[in-house]
Amino acid sequence: DAGVIQSPRHEVTEMGQEVTLRCKLISGHNSLFWYRQTMMRGLELLIYFNNNVPIDDSGMPEDRFSAKMPNASFSTLKIQPSEPRDSAVYFCASSLKLSGFSGANVLTFGAGSRLTVL
Amino acid sequence: DAKTTQPNSMESNEEEPVHLPCNHSTISGTDYIHWYRQLPSQGPEYVIHGLTSNVNNRMASLAIAEDRKSSTLILHRATLRDAAVYYCILTLISNFGNEKLTFGTGTRLTIIP
Q1: A-contacting residues in B 61-100 (Cβ below 8 Å)
Q2: Which end of chain A is more exposed for a tag (fewer CB within 10 A), N or C?
Q3: What is the pLDDT of residue A100?
Q4: How far is B73 from chain A (nearest CA, A)?
Q5: Are the beta carbons of B105 and B52 closer than 8 angstroms?
Q6: Arithmetic mean of pLDDT, A15-26
């Protein structure tokens, strides 16, 4: 398996532009998590989905951020309009959560998308 | 959410065991203890997790105190490739709305050749 695949790996854009980050889940996984990492704030959970349904978006900074899962294997995180303070590394992670299973959730992370907003 | 406390940094010599401590005095009976690590310029990577009993896998061992208020990640023979930030995290069992992994600042492990 190729693991969790994120694109682009690096994005440099100007303030006000729309940014779309993409994530392909591991085949068969049904949970998807978006994290953001900065030096100041560390790793922050933005939103997570189960079976394509958003479960918790309390970490999404503001309305400029939106995330979708158009199908079971793919997700996008969109920032519109982007601002310099959005500069960070954005990670997505996927896991397999079995219905009725009460065990721990083990996440597999992608390599990240480094966003720089000028 | 229950919090964890880890030292900011640790050093260890190559090919020696490393014991990374984590305090979680407010842990509840339903919290799992997870360890992830993040190598430079990479995404976090799962290491190990446990609930009450000690756990072993190919990467490491997890020793959990009897009262569950602390745990120790053990790397049996550190190599230079183990240099990373190690995160100790608690998560709730099931109840799907609380499945979050909330990362703290972790312990930066430096391996000395």
Answers
A1: 87, 91, 93-94, 96-97, 99-100
A2: N
A3: 60
A4: 17
A5: no
A6: 97
Mutation to test the A interface, candidates B99, B105, B107, B108, most A Cβ within 10 Å: B99
Q: Are A91 and B43 within 8 A, CB to CB?
A: yes
> A74 to each of A33, A43, A46, B96, how far by Cα in Å?
11, 22, 17, 21
Cβ within 8 Å, pair A110-B43? yes
Write the residue in A56, A103, A109 that is nearest to B45 by C-beta. Answer: A109
Strands of B2-106 (E only): list them: 9-13, 18-23, 31-38, 45-50, 55-56, 61-64, 70-75, 84-92
3-class SS at B48?
Answer: strand
Q: What is the DSSP string of B4-23?
A: -B--SEEEEETTS-EEEEEE
- B95 compared with A3, residue with greater pLDDT: A3
Reported as a single tens digit per residue, the pLDDT across B14-55 is 999 999 999 999 888 878 899 999 999 999 999 999 989 999
| 3 state SS of B96 | helix
Question: What is the C-alpha to C-alpha distance for residues A19 and B51, in angstroms, rounded to an integer?
Answer: 40
